[in-house]
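Supplementary Methods S3. Complex input for the copper (II) ion-bound model.
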Amino acid sequence: MATLAPTTQWVKGAKDDYRVCGVTTLKVDMHTERLIIANAVMAVVCLVLGGIAALLIALTRWQAVHLLDATWFYRLLTLHGVDMLVAWIVFFEMAGLHFGSTALLNARHAAPKLAWIGFIMMTVGGLMANAVILFDPKSTVAFTAYVPLKAHPLFYLSYILFAVGALITVITFFINLVVAKREKRFEGSMPLAVFGLMTAAILATYTLLEGATAIVPAFLWSLDILPNYDPGIYRNFFWGFGHPAQQVNLAAMVSIWYMLAQMTVGIRPVNEKFSRLAFILYLFFINLGSAHHLLVDPGLTFAWKAVNTSYAMYLAVLGSMMHAFSIPAAMEIALRAKGYNKGLFGWLRNGPWNEPGFSALVMSMILFGWIGGVTGVTIGTEQINMLVHNTLRLPGHFHATVVGGTTLAFMGFTYYVIPLIFRKELKLKKWAVWQPYVYGVGSALVSLGMITSGLQGVSRRNWDITFAGVVPGTVDLTLAIFGIGALIAVTGGIMYVTIVLVSILTGERKEASGLLLVSGTNNPLLDSTKLTDEQMESKQNQPKGTLVMVFAFLVWFAVYYLSNWWLLGRTWFIR
Amino acid sequence: MLAPEKIWWKPLGRIEKTWLTVALVWCVFLTLMMPLWYFMGKQNVPAETYRTTPTQYNEKINAFVEQYKIGEDTINGITLPVVEAPAGSDVYLRASTWQWYPILQFQKGETYRLHISSMDLQHGFSLQPVNINLQVLPGYDYVATIVPTTTGEFTIVCNEFCSLGHHTMIGKIIVK
Ligand code: HEM
Ligand SMILES: [Cu+2]
Ligand SMILES: [Cu+2]
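Predicted complex, serialized as structure tokens:
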């Protein structure tokens, strides 16, 4: 057996120790290592459960196949929402928080016991939710559990356990930051990626608190302690939790984008101020987003809806548009500096397309921005939402953001976590080269199939649309596109899980020998390969290609947005 | 990703400034579109809402059906009244698991005050193929002032999950 690097004690004689990563020269606390492994494993377990459900419900909504009966469809729909949106993503983010608050700062884990308590609560909560949904027929309520639809009390309890566990983990993130600062583990400002993760953690704190205001009364109500729970108020609280939770995902994903770009092409952020400002915009404005889900609810005024849905003035959208520029621009400069300087897009053609971290990053950014972001802003427009609310266009939007965007970025990142943190050799590298493409193309088709079906009025969360009897014939086509996309995406998901499992179970346990997996042995993170100021500022390295791309993006955005107003203008008059 | 630059508080470059300005202008435009449409557009999200209870709402709807019933029709094998009230008046629609009651008839180009409320769970009013979608909550009497601009038979689909029979919850609106 290969020898692993020796560990050193943080403080002489203390029990806690760390190792020095041979690739990045970072100190990795052994507690951090184990916490990351535990959270990542649970994340993948939930992804598998949610993925099985995804396949089965997708094959049901594909009307030509129509696999499950109604009971199982709605049951697995509930399971899918919980395992994917809540469990998979949050477990992965918790792993990211442990990583960001210690390893990236060269610091120790200051609260491992608390972190394990958080992890155990999340695990119990997650598994309990699965069991309740599978075995209690009453708890088929979809993950939103809209009052007065009443689930088993254990259903709400599992949410509470999971959320409190997550909150505890977030608290350990802040403890770690403070301790690292006090012990002077790093100099000056924290790195950009940690800054982004901190944004995510701050958002997560009030998101989870708001979750408690929604779910705790529901729990009491399910026990008949609370006699009444107003459905409108529940919706407001629930989405005060559910929507910002998506911004936690966003901030975490953008941080991972920056890391992937740094790892695979060695970028230096074009302007740290610009990128940090964009994160700060998330922090201030994104919490207004609960309104996105209440745009056609009774009891709320136009002014309330319009102000909240636009995040005061689309300033959080501005934040995303800033990242959408700054990450590709930094990549362009880095690649141009390597000599790939031909024309507008020569740098892009010469990117390391066989490096899974790079392809996952590019696919994730395209799907998130060009499909997810554009459709999101459009359907979050107060009046346009009338055409969209609860149709398949909605899951079409968020399968581009949270599946093609977040999930794909997390998958790409995993391939580096396995050698660096699990210290296992990555197996099936050829599969890893292809996986981001398969998964990305599949989720793009899923999303487009859903969006085009929804445009024709097909509703979401609906076992059999033929009852409605009104859907035009082209729906069969768009649902087939969706179904085929689902098969491709699930294939990509199976590839991912297989690579991870085979590596963890059969890979040799050894120190990582390089950062990049297939595209070379150099390490863009080390100082010798870092870009100099001259390279960053040289005229021929300027990101002209990126500027063209972002303007093309804006044109597409405007076309999609304005054509939706046009569609709205053709329908019945309503006020 | 590792050590940050010592001094990162640098002024923005020309390209960043350009993009920031353009993106900001776009955001302002997105913001202005909503009030603009609110004052000039013909399709706006209804805001008029009253508190109600299932009992109260039922009384109203029974009186309404009795007064304006013009015939009968069946949906899912169940016979429902067809109701047409004069233009400009209040018309009532009731959502309950899993039925929309009654069948409403309108005249094209006329204005109606359409009340919608739920007797039990949350439901979704989705008028197809017009594709107008509204949330329906118990306890809330939601009033949409509508003008049908096309004629024919339209289906009301329930598009909020309302337990197992959700997909069977279909209603009808006729426009002459
Ligand atoms: C292999 C990829 C996937 C496929 C084929 C898939 C398919 C589906 C389908 C068919 C639905 C039901 C749509 C409806 O009838 O309303 C759905 C809903 C949903 N999916 Fe996925 N999905 C995938 C991955 C994911 C991932 C990775 C996430 C989250 C990270 C996710 C989050 C959700 C959520 C939150 C819902 C809404 C559930 C609800 O309406 O209660 N999906 N998905
Ligand atoms: Cu219903
Ligand atoms: Cu329903």
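Chain B touches chain A through 79 residues (CB under 8 Å). DSSP finds two helices and twelve strands in chain B.
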